[in-house]
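B., you asked whether I could sanity-check this one before it goes into the benchmark set. Here's the sequence:
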Amino acid sequence: MVEYIIIVVLIAITLLVLFSKLSKATGTKIAGATSALDADAGAEAATLADEIDENKVKNLKSDGTFQ
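And here's what the prediction gave me:
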């Protein structure tokens, strides 16, 4: 049973790191789709997508807040 818990924890950590690395790419693609619908909202979405910090997981404290 312990082996399954360890495997689940390792998968969760891997997914967390993977999603943090892909967050900027995903945000950029969503901003592009948004700008196709509305130029003003798309420009704002593109600005916000550029501000995504890919290293946020590295700055995570043990209580779940960011530095």
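One thing to flag: The mean pLDDT is 79. Otherwise nothing jumped out at me.
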